[in-house]
Specification:
The structure is a homodimer of 250-residue chains. Chain A contains eight helices and eleven strands. Chain A has 250 residues and is an alpha+beta fold. Chain A has two domains: 74 residues, Arc Repressor Mutant, subunit A, CATH 1.10.10; 167 residues, Chorismate lyase-like (Chorismate lyase). In chain A, a hairpin with a 2-residue loop joins strand 6 and strand 7. Chain A binds a DNA duplex (19 and 19 nucleotides) through helix 3.
Amino acid sequence: MTNVSIEGLSLGTHLYKEVKQKILDSLRTGEWRPGAVIPSEKKLSERFAVSIGTVRKAVDELSAENVLIRHQGRGTFVASHGRGRYFFSFFHVVHQDGVREYPSVDLVAFSRGAADPEVAAALDLDVGDKTVRFTNRLSLRGGFVLLDEITLPAALFPGLSERALRERRSTVYQFYQEHFGISVIKAADRVRAACADALRAQLLEVPKGHPLLHVVRLARSFQDRPVELRHSYVNTAQHEYAVDLLGDRV
Amino acid sequence: MTNVSIEGLSLGTHLYKEVKQKILDSLRTGEWRPGAVIPSEKKLSERFAVSIGTVRKAVDELSAENVLIRHQGRGTFVASHGRGRYFFSFFHVVHQDGVREYPSVDLVAFSRGAADPEVAAALDLDVGDKTVRFTNRLSLRGGFVLLDEITLPAALFPGLSERALRERRSTVYQFYQEHFGISVIKAADRVRAACADALRAQLLEVPKGHPLLHVVRLARSFQDRPVELRHSYVNTAQHEYAVDLLGDRV
DNA sequence: CAGTGGTCTAGACCACATT
DNA sequence: ATGTGGTCTAGACCACTGT
């Protein structure tokens, strides 16, 4: 741990930010895969030639951002979109009695298309770039509650097929991660009130004109790269979209 | 910084948590008021007889929770509900073009009443305890966009008058803080889609039956004490309710 | 300039999990 | 017993702010 520092180095930079970046690089390149342990803090400190405290600070931030997960005595793991509490960081629909529940899913539409200007702008594509679109219908307590209309950049999901989607048993984001190496680590939701049109009313089995939540989500991976645009329609007759403001974490 | 520790002390406890608690105590008792600086980390470390690193860890958490705000070179300040970026931690309605804007407010209703079972459960009161109710109408870009129907426990807001509310020029949470010493530091929102009833349609100048967002918020102060129940109705014709999931902070 | 928070180090010790 | 993350210390140095 020599305090080696070529003169003039580390001007305007922060060691722990560099360490954080190097860790993210190793995640992006797949050196450490989702669900796996990463090297101990001691080893990382040797590898990056910094003190343990500096590694800790980098890992602190990554774990605060849910990119890494620490387990005392066991090690530090790469976050995966399994069915842990993490799932509910991205699934905000709860029953009105407050109970969280995993939805069951059926695929009701699948198609390929080209990005229109709106999609292109959101996903950082050129107009006309190939996209994949599909719609999931989610059920809670046996009733249809949610319609997820999802648009993906085809380039990031090579070979994505309707069949693979239909046969998947994991969550959607877990599926992205395991099959295409794409980790959704943040997202922005924008919520509006809307009335059900004929098609969506039929799929959700509500009267046409029934009020629905319309949620537009843009999900991002490392380096803020947008990877998914999603329009969700929620029947809030018995469910709600729940958000915690401040407090420890999302 | 003697490592004084009566034997057996600090079993199952964490020093920095104790420090955090002591800081919160000083906030609750009003020793350090909103907007003011608190003592430097050095002084705190002497006062609590711990190392600076331990104080830093306590302050780290409090500043992550937006209870304290650090300014390098200036000091650490008690968060206040002024019109800083903090305001938008609790005001999530943005124009559909993404621009955030401060609303203008007018008070359209004020009354006193007693807690019904629902209100009592939410605010941790007994049924029949006195409450204050009022409704704010918020405008953005010259149009009525939001109706905030607010219920407060009268005991926590002694002497709250319609006139004081009407003449206030600060934000609502700033008003609570400055006049009643109540700091809202977290809240939970539950969002549903609804249709405007006659009264609310009239106030928001939309057709009866127009789809609205219905947001139920429970706001809390220190120690998770519930201090405000709020029903908001949002016209999302040109605005949206925006939420960031994960990423650095709210 | 002095004082503040921010970074970084180096090491001791604790709590927990696995072998 | 070993190795992991978690806490705590003590101090050096940097970057920023106000006087």
